[in-house]
Amino acid sequence: MSNELSSKKSFAAGGVAGLTSSIILQPFDLLKTRLQQQKQHNLHYNTTLLKEINKLKNIKELWRGVLPSCLRTSIGSGIYLTLLSKSRFYLYNFKKNNPTLVSKSTSILPKLSHLENLSIGFVIRGVAGYLTMPITIIKTRFESNLYNYNSMYEGIEGIYFDNKVRGSWKNFFKGSFVTLSRDCPYAGLYILFYESFKTDIAKLFSDMDRNASIVNSSSAILAASMATTITAPFDAIKTRMQLSPANPTFSQVTKTLLNEQGGVKNLFRGLSLRLGRKGMSAGISWCIYEELLKRL
Fold it and tell me: What domain of life does the native source organism fall in (predicted)?
């Protein structure tokens, strides 16, 4: 356990895991974004999942925005999981005199305390999230049907100018605060729940090596479901902010959502899709990531 994983191997494993989940689960992201969006000239615009599905011209449209999604998820996962594993090994080696490893662990990553898992997940997700924010905004715009971008270049140009004569790179970081307000707590809570569930579920199996994938996947799904539900309001606010050509504040968007038909429920719009997407993504990504690390 004292030997650290190489950054290249960790980044490659994280990238493959993120790429796989983003391609498989893109329809969940697209439909969630469309449930959370609003028509710019009708603040009381309301929709349902069935309405959005019926609007689709063909099945391929469910994968609209898959390119920026793949870029964001693969690069983001690679950065996040690499920094996360490095940080965990650093902390483990720092407190080597009092290791807290679980016997017969299903992971080659070191086990840390609950507070350490929460803190590391929070900070590292903030770094990775901010670095990939421009791709996140491009991805959100592509998934929405409010913008008809036909290429990545057109999307980048549209966001850069965004109804202004003089463009600004600041547009690529629109909604950064609320996005990180969602992602940082989510990541911290996810790591906390993931390690806790993994410890509890592992006790149900006598042969850890044989059932490692089951333990890791089920723990990831449960952890993602809990963390997703807790951070759902920030996701709804983030989507509205990134789809607006103006620059509304966090409080303005929150007030708008609460004043629209549905009230508080609007803060949890798209939660079922996000739960499905996050749960399956976590199960796929973390299972692939940990299994690849063992083989690499």
Answer: Eukaryota
Which CATH number describes the domain made up of 7-295? 1.50.40.10
Closest CA to 10 of 241, 288, 227, 234: 288
**106 vs 219: CA distance, rounded Å:** 11
- 100 pLDDT higher than 60: no
HEC readout, 132-193 = CHHHHHHHHHHHCCCCCCCCHHHHHHHHHHCCCCCCCHHHHHCCHHHHHHHHHHHHHHHHHH
Of 229, 226, 233, 230, the residue nearest 264 (C-alpha): 233
pLDDT digits (tens, 9 = 90+) for 257-272: 898 888 899 899 889 8
* CB within 8 Å of 20: residues ≥ 6 apart: 284, 285, 288
Domain locations in the chain as residue ranges: 7-295
C-alpha 162/C-alpha 186 separation (Å) is 30
